[in-house]
Design a protein that fits this description.
Radius of gyration: 17 Å
Structural class: mainly alpha
Distance between the termini: 48 Å
Largest sheet: 2 strands, antiparallel
Number of strands: 2
Order of helices and strands: HEE
Strand content: 5-15%
Strand order of the largest sheet: 1-2
Helix content: 55-70%
Number of helices: 1
Low-confidence stretches: none
Oligomer: single chain
Length: about 50
Amino acid sequence: MKSCLRTPFEDQAKRSSRVNQEIELLVRVRLKARSLHGDRVVCVLGRYIAT
């Protein structure tokens, strides 16, 4: 049975994963909004956005 206590590393990894998921969602929403408005092309490279 796995212990309920997590190490600080596990907590940080979980928070980082959640933050990355939120950022990716915001990027998708922003890209969709830009494509609807006909703005300049935005390239998405991995997790970073180049405009």
